[in-house]
Design a protein that fits this description.
By secondary structure, this protein is of the alpha/beta class. Helix content is 29%, strand content 19%. The protein is built from eight helices and ten strands. The longest helix has 14 residues, at 63-76.
Length: 275
């Protein structure tokens, strides 16, 4: 995941056919970056400060992305403000299963998965404004109605805004590996995170992680294996082959060309211990 807070880019709404063109616009002091789009800090100061698994990343928003944010955020966007419990059926307009994806980058893989499985809703969460706009644009262009884009901290979403047993799956693809040892505490896949996620996942829900950083893959496997709320879908207790529903992304392909090893982990939420 990546953060867009304090980004210097300040796009204004433009036409949908200007994709790829960077926007330059001087905002007045205090003027919202996207008046009808994602808020810069939706949760504000309502919640405690803590170590985050994501960090700010400055990046330009193209004209096409800005247009998608302006047009589609009121329809398909969700600011994670922590102030209410979300009715997922109302959010998507149907009662189909919902999978939470944390950290979707530019959204190409998310759009492919949504197109390949229209009977599954995807709530895709990130804090990177260009990626949010790009995914909205892809969903619009491809006529996808089963994608909603969340803006903000996924921990707040899970803890404050989702009901127990409301999710049918969790996807975490290529999270920041935080390779330096002193930064390992920032990694998302930790026992505390899994305990929180387990309360929102229905029994049988699939947790699917993927990373090209082998030390992080080993840590993920160790933490998931040790957690009492999850069981490995692999009989040998190891990594899983990449399932057909997870597309091979351009980023992943570049890594494979360089000799990187990509590991997938597929774990299932076991029935509640007090059930």
């Amino acid at each position: 995941m990546s953060d867009f807070l304090n980004s210097p880019a300040a796009p204004a709404p433009v036409g949908p056919h200007a994709s790829g063109v960077s926007i330059r616009h001087t905002r007045a002091k205090g003027e919202p970056r996207f008046p009808d789009g994602p808020k810069a800090d939706p949760a504000g100061s309502h919640f405690e400060r803590r170590i985050r698994s994501f960090q700010p990343r400055r990046s330009r928003v193209t004209a096409g992305q800005a247009d998608a944010l302006q047009r589609l955020w009121p329809l398909w966007g969700l600011d994670i403000d922590g102030q209410r419990i979300i009715d997922l059926g109302e959010l998507f307009g149907n009662g189909k299963p919902v999978v939470l994806e944390i950290g979707f980058g530019m959204g190409e893989a998310t759009a492919q998965m949504a197109a390949g499985d229209p009977d599954t809703n995807i709530l895709a969460v990130d804090v990177h404004t260009p990626g949010q706009g790009n995914l909205l644009n892809l969903a619009d262009q491809r006529g996808l109605t089963n994608v909603r884009v969340g803006n903000g901290d996924a921990i707040i979403l899970l803890r404050e805004m989702l009901a127990p047993d409301s999710l049918d799956g969790l996807r975490v693809y290529f999270p920041d590996p935080w390779p330096k040892k002193r930064h390992h505490k920032r990694r998302l896949i930790q026992p505390e995170f899994l305990s929180l996620a387990a309360t929102r996942l229905r029994p049988g829900a699939l947790v699917h992680c993927a990373t090209d950083w082998e030390p992080y893959a080993e840590q993920m496997l160790e933490v998931l294996t040790a957690h009492p709320d999850f069981e490995n879908t692999q009989a040998d207790g190891g990594f899983a082959p990449r399932p057909g529903f997870r597309p091979l992304t351009r980023f992943e392909g570049q890594g494979l060309d360089k000799g990187h090893v990509v590991n997938d982990l597929l774990f299932r939420r076991v029935p509640h211990r007090n059930a």
